[in-house]
Amino acid sequence: TASFELLRCVSGVNQRLAKEIVTHRHQRGKFSSRSQLLQVPGFGDKSYEQAAGFLRIKGGENPLDATAVHPESYPIVERMTQSLGLTMAELIENRRMVESLDLKQFCDEKVGLYTLNDVKQELIKPGRDPRDRFAVPTFREDVKEVGDLKEGMVLEGTVTNVTNFGAFVDIGVHQDGLVHVSELSNHFVKDPRKAVHVGEVIKVKVIGVDVAMKRISLSMKALLPIVKGTRSGKTQRSAQHKHDQKQPKASEASPSSKPAAVAKAVVPTKDRQPARARQSKPKPTATAQAQPKKDIPPPQKKKPEVSSQPALSMADKIRLLQEKFSGIR
Questions:
Q1: Are 128 and 93 contacting, i.e. CB atoms less than 8 angstroms apart?
Q2: For 33, phi and psi rounded to 5 degrees?
Q3: I need a labelling partner for 166 at 20 to 30 A (CA). Which of 143, 207, 256, 303 fits?
Q4: Can you name the residues that pair with 47 across neighbouring β-strands?
Q5: If we measure between CA atoms, which residue out of 91, 93, 66, 61 comes closest to residue 76?
Q6: What gap in Å lies between CA 194 and CA 204, rounded to an integer?
Q7: SS (HEC) of 284-329
Q8: What is the pLDDT of residue 128?
Q9: CA dihedral 322, 324, 325, 327 (to 10 degrees)
Q10: Same domain, 118 and 152
């Protein structure tokens, strides 16, 4: 009864073969056994080997056709029923009888204990899902859109994709958040694929939300304990630079270690003269150098001269000005 869309997803069945199965079923009726699939045009032995275990026929001639037991293992199940004295229908879903089987006596060159255990579990519970239990994250009911997110929230999510720069996580707001590679762990992560994998359910903390751009920044490192002594190389270099600045240099620690060199290097500004001026001056003789220098007294400041004439009054000053300018018209 499977549709064309479902059949084309089965291993070993392509779109063309799925159409042939549906056409064969419409023309000749339902399949009564898995072996009838070989009558479908284009359905060869290789396709039958890959697809038979996934195509189940309920109410068919063989009860095993309704289980996930592959037709290649039918002879083994028949040997099991014979050892217990039961029919095929009586053995299926009979846990007590199936558990009593000694699987080692059914091992041979083609079938091992691993395959026999799968057959055993399928006989106990036909139609079971052989995949591991699928973990589903628990989304918060009050967080349904990007606008509902706030910094500091701790949420569960599923990893949907892993790239070189980080991992994308579905937290139930129809927009995946990004856990940058620097926020995946509390230690250095070179390859994000070694830290997380697609389908893994993780807990993250919201560290940034941009509603306009619909960008969500998440962190796993924020939920992990801080590891002591794991500072980055840049921080260590900064600390070493500060330590070096605090220590005095060798020249500053012992200023008197080379007094001659310092005295020679420092020259007063007034004594710096052009080379020609120094060459033009005659060198002092030994006699001149031997004579002691005379002490020259400092120059005395001249006192302002005080006029001996008496000071004029205001009336005399006016009179003198009138006499001086009386002839000017």
A1: no
A2: -155, 160
A3: 143
A4: none
A5: 91
A6: 17
A7: CCHHHHHCCCCCCCCCCCCCCCCCCCCCCCHHHHHHHHHHHHCCCC
A8: 67
A9: 110
A10: no
List the structure tokens of 211: 């509603």
pLDDT at residue 132, as a whole number: 63
Partners of 219 in beta bridges? 205
25 and 81, same structural domain? yes
31 and 66 inside one domain: yes
155/166 Cα distance (integer angstroms) = 18
CATH number at residue 197: 2.40.50.140
Return all residues near 33 (Cβ < 8 A) that are at least 6 apart. Answer: 57, 60, 61, 62, 65
Three-class DSSP category at 207:
strand
**pLDDT mean by block of 10 residues, the chain; 329 residues:** 86 90 90 90 90 86 87 90 89 89 86 88 78 77 92 94 95 94 93 93 95 94 79 49 51 43 42 48 48 57 56 82 72
Q: Which residue has the tokens 């139609």?
A: 127
Extract the tokens encoding 93: 């879903």
244 located within any domain: no
Q: Answer yes or no: is 11 within a domain.
A: yes
From residue 235, how far is each of 46, 148, 218, 225, 245 by CA, in Å? 62, 36, 24, 19, 16
What's the domain range around 61? Answer: 4-124
* Residue 172 domain flag: yes
